[in-house]
Design goal:
alpha+beta, four-stranded antiparallel sheet, globular, about 20% strand
């Protein structure tokens, strides 16, 4: 897994991805980042794992993902088309931020679907034009989008049958990932299922392997500690995040962030 990085916190990114060939099963965009994300499914279907829950998206759905929230998409046996926006906080109206909590992560309202799509196409056109004042116009469009979403009721109702114990397991892992003793077998035993069954269901529901997800949570916390406390050594950070071996931690950290924790720490100190 490689973390998606952005050059600065005033960034705006738009991508319209269209897959015309039939794909078997494709896991995409497994990451978290410092920018807000708006994901619009234009056609096809996918599962979207956000924070601690998996959602089934249908055309017209919007996934709204705050900065720092772990997420991924899993497309199954389908052609698809989607629009993706990543933006900094300045593209989001201050009055809207507290209201987004009522939407949570998935937004569905067919009554304004056409209006949302038309606005997204305007955003796409302006983003591609890169004309004078495009940045300011994009900010206006984004404000309109967010105002539209919070003004109209979210009609999404999650009635599908799912593995509730996997959701509980994800919550358990999120609370206990810093323990060096957490393991697949131990967690499976806590939920009275076999490790093999638990592993399959965890992957199916979240898109992550169990150990992969635990490491992602640990590395995310390590990044936070590096930024928040310059006095902690790499070894101390490694231990606080649940890694028994600081060398293993450094290897995993560099693989995700493209730089060792020591070098990131040095760079942060230089910038301060």
């Amino acid at each position: 897994m490689k973390l998606t990085n952005y050059p600065d916190k005033t960034s705006f990114f738009f991508n319209h991805d269209i897959k015309t060939e039939v794909i078997s099963e494709q896991l995409m965009e497994r990451h978290y980042h410092d920018l807000f994300e708006i994901y619009y499914l234009e056609s096809g279907s996918c599962n979207y794992f956000i924070d601690n829950k998996s959602y089934e998206l249908v055309p017209g759905d919007i996934a709204i993902i705050p900065a720092g929230v772990i997420h991924n998409t899993l497309y199954k046996n389908s052609r698809y088309s989607r629009m993706l926006i990543n933006c900094s906080a300045r593209f989001i109206p201050a009055a809207v931020m507290p209201l987004l909590k009522s939407i949570r992560y998935l937004y569905r309202n067919g009554e304004i679907a056409n209006d949302i799509y038309a606005l997204l196409k305007q955003i796409e056109s302006e983003y591609q034009s890169k004309k004078e004042l495009s940045d300011e116009i994009l900010a206006c469009y984004m404000h309109m989008l967010f105002f539209m979403l919070v003004r109209h009721e979210n009609l999404y109702d999650d009635t599908r049958i799912r593995n509730e114990y996997i959701e509980n397991a994800v919550n358990f892992v999120q609370k206990n990932y810093s323990s060096p003793f957490i393991s697949l077998s131990q967690t499976a035993k806590s939920f009275s299922v076999s490790p093999e069954h638990f592993s399959r269901e965890f992957k199916k529901e979240t898109g992550f392997g169990f150990c992969e997800y635990v490491n992602l949570l640990r590395l995310k916390r390590a990044e936070q500690l590096l930024k928040q406390n310059m006095k902690l050594s790499v070894t101390e950070i490694s231990e606080k995040c649940g890694f028994n071996d600081s060398n293993y931690f450094s290897v995993k950290f560099k693989k995700m962030y493209g730089v060792s924790p020591k070098k990131m720490q040095q760079k942060l100190k230089e910038n301060r």
